[in-house]
Amino acid sequence: MRNLLPEAARTGATSLLGLFAGGLVFTVLAPSLLKLPASAYVRHWQALNTDYGRAMPVLLLTCLALLLVTCATSYQRGRPVFRLTVTATLLLVAVIVLTLTALDPLNRLADSWNADRPPADWTDIRRHWWTLHTIRTVMAVLAFLALLIANVADRRNGVRVRPGAGDYRG
Q1: What are the phi and psi torsion angles at 9 (to 5°)?
Q2: Burial class (CB in 10 A: 0-12, 13-18, 19+), 88
């Protein structure tokens, strides 16, 4: 019987990473946010910090755990699959480090503001956050793409022709 753990871990990791990367991309694709007046933008930022602050740690840590299982089980699937899986894992670790060391402190700072009277330099802080968020988004999308390519490479490795039978097995 086939071991389903590698496939289940990779499917779960791919789903969570895709969900996370998609959410980040959506923010980048919403430039109208940058046109909001200060009080509306700060309220929006603070609301997102509350929602994402609850969901992101669970999502990212679960995804990381599944990616680690996927790395451990993909070694036997061939070098391309293993390397792509490791690449996705390292990119996710970089996303987590960037989030914890740079973006979260800015989020906590924004949470401390009075939305009706944001600090004079709030636009500079917002610009810095957007730059870091864009970098994080690129890394998350690249991690997701690496995992998708690993899935395709593994599926291609799994297709074999049985000698004499003429059928394909996946």
Answers
A1: -65, -45
A2: buried
Distance in angstroms (rounded) separating the CA atoms of residues 105 and 9: 31
Hunting for tokens 């636009």 — which residue is that? 123
pLDDT digit string (tens) for 129-152? 999 999 999 999 999 999 999 989
Across 49-75, average pLDDT: 93
Query: What DSSP element (H or E) covers 168?
Result: strand 168-169
How far is Cα 107 from Cα 87, in angstroms, rounded to an integer? 28
Integer Cα distance of 50 and 107 in angstroms: 10
Residue with tokens 């923010």: 27
Q: What percent of the chain has pLDDT over 70?
A: 91
Of the candidates 23, 6, 5, the one whose C-alpha atom is nearest the C-alpha of residue 144 is 23
In this prediction the pTM is: 0.86
Domain ranges (residues) in the chain: 5-155
